[in-house]
Backbone:
């Protein structure tokens, strides 16, 4: 959103405990039961995500699963299902693209967006987004609004589940000073330990050390951490360009020209591509069919229908038309590929207008 006389702000929109929340959405009967998502405890699996109830028992990401289940014996362990989480994240990002013109997706279940607007506009947007995402996607959000990316992420952590926290530029110093140094980007456990040895437990302590000392101790990294402690972060929102195409292919178990095999393979590839289009909010304008011949050459045929499309049935229909173009040449094939071209975001540029007041 752009506006005259308004200052840019960064929003960090996140589903906290994303994997656990997706698992809970997939099985509503679990209710408020504690969940721990991750590897097999008998194989030294680790925790990937946990519900709030499990975290209140001391469960943390990265700890061994058997230790987590000892801390929270009533928790249900759920094996990691990345396909499910990617699909849920794709649906969330597609939804958020309907609100923000451009987003950066640093990891599954969250986005950064840069917008302009007055305080009441941004607060109303964030509040509406939390309510609508809960209602329409059954996913809880927390949103941080701040002058920079890392501050927006910290603000979201302060918001709590289902909340919004806005950090204004004038309040940055007071906000950062009492935070543990480990809350800053670039400060891991080892760095936090070394800073502690220098007497810096909080961000305020770190600023007291001064930039020169930090640079002597940690070289350029020390200077960068000092700037972050002052709230300075010039990292832009990095928007991934819309891909021009996407494709899928399969290799047959043996050379074949069996029409049933070709049709079955085309159907599977079409379903996979339609799912990817839906997750990312795209439509396609062109289908290209590739047939990998036994002699290593590739036969390619393409078709651009009059209107864009996104469904598996339409992709498969166009694919069958391309298959039939060649007739029965008697050629043996070792595989097949389908590529969709002319990708565009569903709904064009008018998708974001309904959440913004005039």
Residues:
């Amino acid at each position: 959103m752009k506006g005259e006389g308004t200052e840019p702000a960064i929003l960090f929109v996140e589903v906290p405990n994303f994997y656990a929340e997706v698992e809970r959405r997939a099985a509503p009967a679990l209710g408020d039961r504690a969940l721990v998502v991750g590897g097999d405890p008998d194989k030294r699996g680790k925790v990937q995500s946990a519900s709030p109830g499990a975290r209140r028992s001391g469960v943390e990401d990265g700890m061994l699963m058997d230790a987590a289940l000892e801390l929270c014996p009533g928790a249900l362990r759920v094996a990691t299902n990345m396909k499910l989480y990617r699909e849920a994240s794709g649906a969330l990002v597609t939804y958020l693209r309907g609100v923000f013109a451009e987003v950066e997706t640093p990891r599954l279940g969250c986005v950064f967006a840069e917008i302009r607007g007055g305080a009441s506009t941004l607060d109303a947007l964030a509040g509406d987004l939390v309510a609508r995402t809960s209602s329409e996607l059954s996913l809880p959000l927390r949103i941080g609004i701040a002058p920079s990316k890392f501050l927006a992420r910290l603000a979201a952590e302060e918001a709590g589940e289902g909340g919004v926290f806005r950090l204004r530029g004038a309040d940055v110093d007071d906000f950062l000073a009492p935070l543990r140094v480990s809350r800053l980007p670039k400060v891991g456990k080892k760095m936090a330990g070394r800073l502690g040895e220098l007497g810096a437990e909080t961000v305020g302590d770190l600023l007291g050390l001064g930039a020169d000392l930090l640079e002597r101790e940690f070289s350029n990294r020390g200077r960068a951490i000092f700037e972050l402690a002052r709230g300075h972060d010039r990292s832009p929102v990095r928007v991934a360009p819309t891909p021009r195409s996407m494709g899928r292919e399969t290799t047959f178990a043996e050379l074949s020209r069996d029409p049933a095999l070709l049709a079955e393979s085309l159907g599977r590839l079409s379903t996979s591509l339609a799912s990817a289009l839906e997750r990312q909010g795209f439509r396609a304008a062109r289908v290209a069919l590739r047939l990998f011949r036994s002699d290593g050459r590739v036969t390619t045929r393409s078709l651009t229908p009059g209107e864009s499309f996104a469904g598996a049935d339409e992709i498969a229909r166009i694919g069958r038309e391309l298959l039939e173009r060649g007739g029965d040449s008697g050629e043996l094939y070792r595989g097949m590929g389908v590529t969709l071209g002319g990708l565009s975001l569903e709904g064009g540029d008018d998708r974001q207008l309904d959440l913004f007041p005039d």
Q: What stands out?
A: The domain at 245-342 is CATH 3.30.1490.100 (Dna Ligase; domain 1). The CA atoms of residues 182 and 192 lie 6 Å apart.
